[in-house]
Amino acid sequence: MKFQLNDTFTELYKKPAQWHICSPGRVNLIGEHTDYNHGFVMPMAIDKATHLFIRPRQDSQVNLYAANFENSYSFLLDQLRAGEHEWGEYAKGMAWAIHTYYQKLKYGFDAVVYGDIPIGAGLSSSAAFELAIGQAFCLSNSLNWDPVIMAKLAQQAENEWVKVNCGIMDQFICSLGQVNHALLIDCDSLEYEQLPLPHNTKVIIMDTATRRGLVESAYNERREQCEAAAESMAVETLRTLGEKDLPTLQTRLDKTTYARAKHVISENARVLEAKQALLNNDPIHFGKLMVSSHESLCQDFEVSSEALDTMVQIALDTEGCFGARMTGAGFGGCAIALVRADEAEQFVKTVTEQYQKSQQMEPYLYICAPSQGCSASPIN
Ligand code: GLA
C-alpha cells in the first residue's frame, strides 16, 4: 500500500513524497458523552488510520489528493475562506486554527491521503484526518509537534470552522494514543494517564452496519440538556456533581433532563472504577462496568439504537465475552466488546452469524489493537 501511494504521489506531483503520516481512529472503552461535561473518558487508538504522504512546499499552496475518493482539493494559506467542500473544510479548518495560534503558518504541502477507517461509523475518521493535517503543517513550517496543543487546535477547527460541536476526546486520543494502552483523560484539567489493557484480552469492534442521520441535532440537544442540569445547580459543568446531588437534581429537573444528568454523573464514576479494574488487571469487573455504561446510555441518555442493543446482547451471550457496549456518539455505528484472547476469533464468527440472522444485515467485526497516536516518519 505504502509503495503504491508513493507511486501515486510521484505521478501526481512529479517528485517523491518526503514524509508518511499515520493518524489512527479510536474507540471509546468507557466514558460516553462525558467529555463535553468536563468529565472522564477512556478511549484507545486503533489500528485503522488515515495516512498522508506529503512533501512540504516553498509557497502557501496546499494540494490534497484523496485516493479513496479519487478527488483533489487545493487552497492557499493566505486566502483561507470557509466553503462547503466535504473533507477539504477539515484541512482549511486546521490551517486556520494553527495559524491563529502560532501566527506563522507560511508553507503548504502536496499530499496524497488514504484511509481505512470506515467513515460515519463513529470511529473518528475526521479527528484522524485533522491531526494528520496538523502534522503536515508542523513538518512544512518547522513547528514543534505538541500533541496536547494540536488536539485542542483540531477540536477548535471542528467546532469553529466545520461547525460540529464535538468534545475533546477524539482529537486527544488520536494525538496521544500509545501502543497496548487505553488513555484515561480528565476532560477538565486535560491531565491524562496511559493504562494497560487486561492481560489475555482483545477489544473487538462490532460495526452494526447502520448509520443514522440527525446525529448532530440529537447530540446538540443532549449537550443543552446537560448544560441546563448544571445550571439548575448553579455549577459550570456536571463534572462537579456526584451521586449525592441526584436527589436535589431530581426535584429541580423534568424527568428527561434528570435522566441525562444521572447518566453523566454515574458514567464519570464508572470511568474511575474502570481505571481501578485495569490497574488490578481485572477484566471481569471492567466488563461489568461496560454493561452498566451501555444500559445507562440506552435508558437514561437514550442514544443507543435497536441495532446497537442487539449487537451488544449477542456479544454478551457469546463465549469469552467480559462486557460490551456501544461506543462513540451512538444512534448507529459501532459497539465494542472485551473478549478473552483465545476466544476472539471464534467470537467474531459467532457474533457475525447471529447478528446477520437477527438483523438481516452483514455486520463488520474485527479484532483491533491499541495503537500509537498520530506520528510521522521520513520516507527514504
Ligand atoms: C462524539 C464526539 C466526542 C464525544 C462522543 C460521545 O464522538 O466527537 O467528543 O462527545 O461523541 O462520548
Notes on the protein architecture:
By secondary structure, the chain is α+β, with helices and mostly antiparallel strands. The protein folds into two domains: 2-196 and 371-378, Ribosomal Protein S5, domain 2, CATH 3.30.230; 201-368, GHMP kinase, C-terminal domain (Alpha-Beta Plaits, 2-Layer Sandwich). Helices cover 42% and strands 23% of the residues. It contains eleven helices and twelve strands. It has helices spanning 2-13, 88-102, 125-140, 147-161, 169-176, 215-232, 246-252, 255-279, 283-299, 306-316, 344-359, and strands at 19-30, 40-56, 61-66, 71-76, 109-115, 181-186, 192-196, 201-207, 321-326, 334-340, 364-368, 375-378. Strands 1, 2, 3, 4, 5, 6, 7 and 12 form an eight-stranded mixed sheet that branches. It has a four-stranded antiparallel sheet with strand order 9-10-8-11. Helix 7 (246-252) runs antiparallel to helix 8 (255-279). It is globular, with a radius of gyration of 21 Å. It starts with a helix and ends with a strand. The mean pLDDT is 97. It binds alpha-D-galactopyranose. Residues 275-356 form the GHMP kinase C-terminal domain. Substrate binds at residues 32-35, 219. Keywords: ATP-binding, Carbohydrate metabolism, Cytoplasm, Galactose metabolism, Kinase, Magnesium, Metal-binding, Nucleotide-binding, Transferase. Residues 90-177 form the GHMP kinase N-terminal domain. Belongs to the GHMP kinase family. GalK subfamily.
